[in-house]
Amino acid sequence: MAISAIGGTYEGKLSPDGGTITGTWTQGPQPISLNLVRVSAEAAWEIPKPPPPPTPMRADADPSFEVATIKFSRPEEQGKGFRVRGRNFSTINTSVTDIIMFAYGVHARQIVGAPAWFDTEKYDITAKPDGEGQPSDKQWKAMVQKLLAERFKFAFHREKKELSVYAIVLAKGGSKMTKSEGDPNGLPGMGFRGLGALNVRNAGIEDFARLMQATVLDRPVVDHTGLTGRFDFALNWAPDELQFGGAGARRGGGPKTDGGEALPDLFAAMQAQIGLKMEATKAPVEVMVVEKAERASEN
């Protein structure tokens, strides 16, 4: 049995009487024994019913943040992140550049003419939408775009510029990813269990490209696969010195296989594990030219 979302596998042997399974759970380099015993119907507990799924916000709704609090992050704050929990949105230790990248799905190199404080000043944001229902991914990002315009007075225009990019294309043999059965309008689930250990659930290739350009790679990433829909997959590789801002190389590389061998680099791992290729090239890319921006006052 494999649970790709957490990188875990279980292998066991059923006893002749069907009463026990003797086996091993593996999640990382140290397997552990995990033995299972059948429970009688009298001793078994009732599995609780899951809570009902949240009611989605109307697709034609154009929500704004009803309440939004912006504060400067603590100087000692480590890391950064964005979180959606129910109808609550928050960021931790994020720069204006980070917020624009999230809201518009761009790489930092696609933001042109920004003042220095876009990168140096960090903010914590908590916000809640108006209206009713659970916003979609598109609606959350539209609300953050409005927040940038209202609280940071952010204004820009778009231009085309040739940039060095990574293009994602299909590898020989085609995709090895699993079509997701998740809500096609729901939020994509993408997270790292460690540097170079990525789990993806219910995400499109464009979602994957935005994550890679925002978190891993040093240039924009564009989707040239032609694939539509959403996918589930795991991707494990050893980061090099140009990925994760050099953090992978500083920490001695990424995760290893269960046998302790070094994992392949990102480019080889993508082909072998998910059937995609990453090609370095140049391409005309839309950039955002900053026209105006102001520091947001705390509240």
Tags for this entry?
6 helices, four-stranded antiparallel β-sheet, 3 domains, 299 residues, alpha+beta, 16 strands
Description:
The chain has 6 helices and 16 strands. By secondary structure, the chain is of the alpha+beta class. The chain is 18% helix and 37% strand. It has 3 domains: 2-37, no CATH class; 65-160 and 287-292, no CATH class; 162-286, no CATH class. The chain is globular, with a radius of gyration of 22 Å. α1 packs antiparallel against α3 (137-151). The model has no long low-confidence stretch (mean pLDDT 91). The chain has a 4-stranded antiparallel β-sheet, with no helix packed on it. A 4-stranded antiparallel β-sheet has the order 5-9-7-6.
Number of domains: 3
Biggest sheet details: 4 strands, antiparallel
State Rg. 22 Å
N-to-C series of helices and strands: EEEEEEEHEHEHEEEEHEEHHE
The residue-averaged pLDDT reads 91
Strand content: 35-45%
SS class:
alpha+beta
Number of helices: 6
Helicity level: 10-25%
Briefly, what is this?
The protein is an alpha+beta fold and 299 residues long. It has helices at 96-104, 117-120, 137-151, 205-216, 247-250, 266-274; strands spanning 2-3, 8-14, 20-26, 32-37, 65-72, 81-85, 88-95, 111-112, 122-129, 155-170, 178-179, 189-194, 197-203, 221-223, 231-236, 276-292.
Topology summary:
Elements: E1 2-3, E2 8-14, E3 20-26, E4 32-37, E5 65-72, E6 81-85, E7 88-95, H1 96-104, E8 111-112, H2 117-120, E9 122-129, H3 137-151, E10 155-170, E11 178-179, E12 189-194, E13 197-203, H4 205-216, E14 221-223, E15 231-236, H5 247-250, H6 266-274, E16 276-292
Parallel strand pairs: 8-16, 10-14
Antiparallel strand pairs: 1-2, 2-3, 3-4, 5-9, 6-7, 7-9, 10-16, 11-15, 12-13, 13-15
Helix pairs in contact: 1-3
